[in-house]
Design goal:
The chain is built from 17 helices and 21 strands. By secondary structure, the chain is α+β, with helices and mostly antiparallel strands. The protein folds into 3 domains: 90 residues, 2-Layer Sandwich (Uridine Diphospho-n-acetylenolpyruvylglucosamine Reductase, domain 2); 119 residues, Uridine Diphospho-n-acetylenolpyruvylglucosamine Reductase, domain 3, CATH 3.30.465; 186 residues, FAD-linked oxidase, cap domain/gating helix (Vanillyl-alcohol Oxidase, Chain A, domain 3). The strands form 5 sheets. It has a 7-stranded antiparallel beta sheet with strand order 15-12-14-13-19-20-17, sandwiched between helices. It has a 5-stranded antiparallel beta sheet with strand order 5-6-10-8-9. β5 and β6 form a beta hairpin. It is globular and about 70 Å long. The protein starts with a helix and ends in a 15-residue tail after the last helix.
Length: 461
């Protein structure tokens, strides 16, 4: 019996009927995530566990027979992190969707990884509670994927990224043992922060089967501020001015290229004549929101905004936020696309966006830039004519140049999408030699046989 057959035998014995797939036509849709420019191998099966015990049994068999396992959530990742590799078992957690516990008094929810971000938010909202991290893909990304990539979102400028919301995790280790890391309390420093280490590890250290996530009271309706600028650099200067005076609950940036793409794809009256649009919100209670909105407006006008105004119209706010969330599909509709994800210190934002425009001109490619301005997190998206190999090569060169821009300004090659396959080479530039060694030793400690998502997330040595 081959190692693969041995794992299939165990999986078939513990999984529910229909939860182990070997049909190659069905497997094909589980080979790739949503990224472009990444390769994928051929797995021998896809398993869909429904319980932690099932995950543990499958992992114990894979460990015994040294079979690689690729964990997968909703497949919405943008870095190839859940792409299959040859001879692997894809372990898809999309059927582990139960909310185990909502503890309003202690401010947390315990949920399995397959539930979608929006579904969890709606579930806890019934109790007047709020889960803050809200990626633009919230309607189709899973909580497990959010944990594994340390996903951000539009509200993270004030409320933090996924790691800031994780109190504890239930994790199946490479050898099938189950451990619980983190805590149930707001404070706690007992031992190393293993939960923090696992968040963002992209399935290379363990399989998350439950996340204990911090909840907050539902915020009041937001007051929205909109400002238009001649160019992105001026908008970047406005961001610096805003963040030195206050912390809005949302601060998003779109350039002209992105607005035009959204308007072409789904017309909604965006001001496409402007060079950049800055969208901010305040969720402070009562008159505090009006006062914060005035501070934001003053900073925008001081930075040279063409126009700025405040709105309490929820329909207009939702239209603008919808346009921001539609940036990726709108740019995707224009041709072949390659999405970058970099972050720089806010004081470097204006210079970085100006250099990204120079990258577009130098390589003769279309780049639409948008992102979470309050975090200095930008998503320059490179678009080239479909099937144009020369343009695609220029796009790849532009992609790497953008990474260099981020590093040159003291930033990072990935703000929230993770490393996966797409940025292993760039991670080796960001991490110094001792840090790379520590990463390798940590991987070996958690996964001594190297079966968990091999070849992902770590530098390419």
């Amino acid at each position: 019996m081959t190692p693969e057959d041995s794992v299939l035998s165990v999986a078939g014995g513990v999984l529910d009927d229909g939860d182990l797939v070997v049909d190659t036509d069905i497997i094909e849709s589980y080979r790739f995530d949503r990224s472009t420019g990444t390769e994928a191998g051929q797995p021998f099966a896809v398993a869909f566990p429904r319980t932690t015990e099932q995950v543990a049994a499958v992992m114990a068999a894979a460990y015994e027979h040294r079979v690689p396992v690729v964990p997968r959530g909703a497949g919405s990742g943008l870095n190839g992190g859940s792409n299959a590799i040859d001879g692997s078992l894809v372990l898809c957690l999309e059927r582990m969707r139960r909310v185990r516990n909502v503890d309003g008094a202690n401010g947390f929810v315990e949920t399995e990884p397959g539930i979608l971000n929006t579904e969890l938010r709606e579930h806890v909202a019934k109790d007047g509670l709020w889960y803050a991290p809200d990626p633009a893909s919230k309607d189709f990304c899973s909580i497990g994927g959010n944990v594994n990539t340390n996903a951000g979102g539009l509200c993270c400028v004030k409320y933090g990224v996924t790691r800031d919301a994780v109190l504890g995790l239930e994790v199946v280790l490479a050898d099938g043992r189950v451990t619980h890391v983190g805590r149930r309390t707001v404070k706690g420093v007992a031992g190393y922060d293993l939960a923090g280490v696992l968040v963002g590890s992209e399935g290379t250290l363990g399989i998350v089967t439950m996340a204990r996530l911090r909840l907050r009271p539902l915020p009041p309706p937001a007051t929205t501020v909109v400002a238009l600028f001649d160019d992105m650099a001026a908008a970047g200067r406005a961001v610096e001015g805003i963040m030195t005076r206050t912390t809005p609950s949302l601060l998003e940036l779109l350039d002209r290229t992105t607005m035009q793409a959204v308007e072409e794809w789904r017309p909604s009256g965006l001001p496409v004549e402007a060079g950049a649009l800055l969208l901010a919100q305040s969720d402070m209670p009562g008159p505090g929101a009006d006062a914060e909105a005035e501070v934001i407006l003053e900073a925008c006008l001081a930075a040279g905004a063409m126009e700025g105004y405040r709105s309490e119209d929820p329909e207009q706010a939702e239209m603008l936020l919808g346009a921001r969330r539609m940036a990726i599909p709108a740019l995707e509709a224009k041709g072949d696309w390659l999405l970058d994800d970099v972050a720089v210190p806010r004081t470097a934002l204006a210079a970085a966006v100006a250099e990204i425009e120079q990258v577009a001109a130098r390589h003769d490619v279309l780049i639409g830039t948008f992102g979470h301005a309050g975090d200095g997190n930008l998503h320059p998206t490179i678009v080239t004519p479909r099937g144009d190999a020369d343009a695609a090569a220029r796009g790849l060169a532009a992609f790497d140049d953008i990474l260099s821009v981020a590093l040159r300004h003291g930033g990072t090659v990935t703000g929230e999408h993770g490393v996966g396959l797409l940025k292993r080479h760039a991670l080796a530039e960001e991490l110094d030699a001792p840090a790379q060694e520590l990463h390798a030793r940590l991987k070996d400690a958690f996964d001594p046989r190297g079966i968990l998502n091999p070849g992902k997330s770590l530098p390419r040595w």
